[in-house]
Amino acid sequence: MITTETVNVQDEKKSAFLGSLSSAFQGVESYTALRKSAWDTLSKFAIPGTKTEAWKYTRVGKVINQARKKSGGNTQINLPEIAIGGLRYVFVDGVFRADLSDELTWQGLNIRRTGESAENNLLGTLSNHNADWFEAVNAAFFNDGLVIDVDKHTHIDCPIHLVFFASEENTAAFSRNVISLQESSSLQVFTHYIGSQHSTFSSVVTEAFVAKNASLKIDKIQEGNEAAFHHVEWTKQERDSRFDITTVTLKSSWVRNDLNIRVAGENCHSSLTGAYLPSGKEHVDNHTMVDHMVPNCESDEKYKGIVRENATAVFNGKVFVRPDAQKTNAFQQNANIVLDDTATMFSKPELEIYADDVKCSHGSTTGQFDEEAVFYLRARGIGEVMARKLLVEAFLADVITTLSDERLQSYCTEKIQQLMHS
Amino acid sequence: MAYAGDDELLEHVTGKEYEFGFTTNIESDKAPPGLNEDTIRLISQKKNEPEWLLEWRLDAFRVWSEMVEPEWAHVQYQKPDFQAISYYAAPKKKAQLNSLDEVDPELRRTMEKLGISMEEQKRLSGVAVDFVLDSVSVATSFKEKLGELGIIFCSMSDAVQEHPELVKKYLGSVVPKTDNFYAALNSAVFTDGSFCYIPKGVRCPMELSTYFRINEAGTGQFERTLVIADESSYVSYLEGCTAPSRDENQLHAAVVELIALDHAEIKYSTVQNWYPGDENGKGGVFNFVTKRGICHLRSKISWTQVETGSAITWKYPSCILKGDHSVGEFYSVAVTNKRQQADTGTKMIHIGKNTNSTIISKGISSGYSQNSYRGLVQINKSAKNARNFSQCDSLLMTDHCGAHTFPYIEVKNSSAKVEHEATTSKIGEDQIFYCLQRGINEEKAISLIVNGYAKDVLNKLPMEFAVEAQKLLAISLEGSVG
Lengths: 422, 482
Known about the structure:
The complex is a heterodimer of chains A (422) and B (482). Chain A is of the alpha/beta class and 422 residues long. Chain A is built from seven helices and 20 strands. Chain A has two domains: 4-265, no CATH class; 369-422, no CATH class. Chain A has a ten-stranded mixed beta sheet, with helices on one face. Chain A has a ten-stranded mixed beta sheet with strand order 3-4-5-7-9-11-13-15-17-19. With 482 residues, chain B is an alpha/beta fold. Chain B has one domain. Chain B has helices at residues 6-14, 37-46, 51-66, 105-113, 118-125, 143-148, 156-162, 164-170, 181-189, 429-437, 442-453, 455-458, 463-477, and strands at 28-30, 89-91, 128-133, 136-140, 152-155, 194-198, 208-213, 224-229, 234-242, 250-252, 255-260, 265-273, 285-295, 300-307, 312-315, 318-321, 327-336, 341-344, 347-350, 356-365, 370-379, 387-396, 402-411, 417-426. The chains are: A alpha/beta (422), B alpha/beta (482). Chains A and B meet through strand 19 and strand 20 of A and strand 23 and strand 24 of B.
């Protein structure tokens, strides 16, 4: 029951948090209409808590209870060595770093900075800043990001490598990207979110538009360390298009991913995969929503995780099939391994179906390593540590192998092994 | 899928009057509508209740007045006006009855239409029936026979008078009076219900059964059922419902509490066939029920339900697996047709070591209905080696209806194994074709396929119910393929 007292505390926290951000991010202009509706949401709704269904299992204190400032973005950083080639663009604490980035030009590709170019008419058309409090926070304060356009019939064969680095203590960073693929084009994006040993909060909202017959692949690796991440992807697919996304959450203290796909054209394929392995006191929350608006589409979802120590993991996947979306095939799978009695797994795979001629299924399992498999390996002279290593690799393999570059796959596999045996 | 003559078929069925839609004209002793402390005092006084129970009711009422009606369920309805309901209706008291012949002939006819002729029941099926017509038990049979074994099976009002110590000890121990909005309301105003106590080591020789029936226009039905199975005992309890056709929505907010002490087993089966409203969603019963059982050491509670009626169903029979090695089961078939909305499922709370739970839920939606499964499986830290298996399937019959699954799985333990799977699909065209080819008409084919689909659950029902349930399924779904 909400008493007046708790409401007051809530209000105080809310105004302290928004107050610190407002003074830090003064002078944020452009997109006035979007920001206005975001502010309406912020004032109308309370900070999401246990009573908000979408945030039921995620405590937001870590993000809220800390006054945040804006960074100058000129910290010296060491970028991890992943040479996957392609074009690299780096943001440090939400600020674009030209010195670390490639040129913003490429054949068939048009890249601009959200903060510097004229208002993009697609920005804000998909996102849920009218109802979700944290998306509204992003919409109210974002000041940079990239707008990536791919021309018609253009296949960009080098990946775009985006790095979002959070480094400076107690800073907040808000970025907003738009990725727009014209008809029959293709693009591969690798987003690498990196945090430091300092407490930071970074919120990135990406809206992607995949036109007819186009194909977009996003590989997303999160290594937040002490950073708190709120990452939102909104994708709209037109007919005959393809969208694949892989999310790998390595060591990150607080992560909330909101992945939303609107399948708006027939004959689309969408695939969502994810892996997470929180330990210590980490918290990872993956929310996904596939909205099948039209008939004859297919979606495939697979999230796998290993939860250890005092960590908490949340999976909330939703498949929504609208009344006319006949012949939809939608699959959803969530598999978890809980390794300690102090670890917690919350799994909520949902189906909401309003059409009859569909095939939809979901499965969720939570268990442990198969001791018989460990025994099998040990009986063949493989030591226990090595055996468990192999089983972890095998368990997560069907997610890791969906990363589009082999170098990314081996980077993740190596990191996972380090994490599991640290 | 378009079969010739679909429309006619549909018309034929939707035009069908609710089979059990008749009302009994008995003068009834009815409280004026409205809910306040005086109403509760009136109920308590009419029932000649002890002081502690009145206080308990008033406590519940005070908490309820502060509560807000929940809105999280996947259903939409006009909220009932709690001040427009009459909270007490008892068939006018006649002199004490010695035999069935003395029962009001009108009442007898009602029972016969419901297919529970007392003589028949007595002679053939060996089922003791505690027949509840609007709140007050009218006739209780087999009481003596059960009495010999020490089994207490009576109405809640009698239990309050005759076994106050048991009622006081267990009432509200599983569903606290302030558990949720409707449980609190029930605690404040419940008028009657069934009470059952099985003593240590006794295996109840017959299925205990209660038929509920909402009769008086504009009265809410607030039943309170309490089943206590003492150590190493066994009981199978049946609950079946039909209600007359009424235009205004009727509210039913019951509370069922099961207590399985060490090594005991309770099997609780329900067939619910209340008035679902007409094809435009007008009328129908609101079924907002709180059902929960607690399992002690090595005990077992098994819920089986066949839900075909009610305009709005909002019900989650749950098991608290407190004792080590205890077992909880939930088998459900929920059918929604026309404009019905159901949000039903279960909660399995694992606390004890080596606890085991199974959930099998089969949803069938047709017409313009919405059918949701909502279930919670919670494995707590202390529940070492807990095991759960859940399967929730949905079958869609038309393209206007919806089938939804909202499972909540919470695991806080490294030795637990939890599996959940759900599928949603259409009734197989190839299966219907196969039947048609062999001269089985469409109607029969659907009935056959649906019964096969729900077989896992129907098999769990006691014999008497299984037959009734199969008939119900067929009636509920006639002509609904589209």
